[in-house]
Description:
The protein is α+β, with helices and mostly antiparallel strands. It is 24% helix and 25% strand. It contains 6 helices and 16 strands. The protein has helices at 2-38, 55-63, 108-118, 121-124, 211-221, 232-241; strands at 89-94, 99-105, 126-133, 146-151, 158-162, 169-177, 183-188, 192-193, 276-282, 288-291, 294-296, 303-309, 313-316, 319-322, 329-332, 335-338. The strands form 5 sheets. Strands 3, 4, 6, 7 and 8 form a 5-stranded antiparallel beta sheet that branches. A 4-stranded antiparallel beta sheet has the order 11-10-14-15, with no helix packed on it. It is elongated and about 155 Å long.
Amino acid sequence: MAAIRNIKNRVKSIIRAKKQSVARKPVRLLKTRVKAARLPKAGVPAAAPAPVFGAQELAIENMKYYTSAPVKARRQMPQELSNAYGKDGIVLIARDPWWLYTFWEVTRETYDKLRNDLGEHLHSARRVLRVYDVSNIIFNGSNANRFFDVFVHHDSLNWYIDTGGPGRSWCVDFGLLLSDGRFITIVRSNTVTTPIDGPSWITDEEWMIPEEMFARLYGMGFGFGKSSPVGKAWQERMKRELFSGVLASPGITSVGSPTKKRFPKDRKFWLIVNTELIVYGATEPDAKVTVQGRPIRLRPDGTFSLRFALPDGKQVIPVKGVSADEVDEITVTPIVTRETR
Length: 341
């Protein structure tokens, strides 16, 4: 019995040893194949790698922890704007026809420099917004039409300014007004223009057009023919008839003749001066409007505009509007007088 038991134990040990060798064999083969791939022998073709036991299962196991989806950045909460940017500056904005709004920043380094330059005068100085009226000029700092001062608080960083004048251009300096009357400019703003406080006086559109095309269209519109009237003969004709009744508004013209002066034939110098009158208005789009008894065509929004020759004398231009149902009627009569000397 003891001999049989020893045989069984030996068989079990042999089987256990074989199982262990089979489990370790793929690792040894894999290492061997890798070394062979890294250091191939010269002139000997590399043998195809033998299948590794369990390699596919290992690859699938590793793939469980990998994804190709991009990782989204973590969303950050928006932060408030900074109260200061460490830079000297002032910005001016037109709020409406009468009011301006400005905000500014002056760094500590700038105030330290002013303290060194002004000394004790800085303590008695007042912070001021000097507002310049720079309408229709190129402002150089000293040629403003006028200016006025607005005193601001010590810690103020923005201010509303009442200009009291619509349709003007403005520029603002932020600085210090010293006790002796001197004004020290720290920063200067941009220039803005406040809008007017009423309807625009511009009634006609202006279009860019080449001179030759303008001459052709203008000439065809007043019976000069289809050819381009840009020659010398056309210019001489324009000199004789410009601003006359022939070239006045083709729809409705006022009665009268333009002012002309005769010149000696041996002199080439000449001068013609005349004036025109523009009548414009608005009513209901479906209304009927007549000017000097003649019907006119309204625009889709109910507006209209007419250009008249304006000779010397008194011109009466009655404008009558009648509602679409012919119940309401309004008549407005502009009277214009011209005198040329």
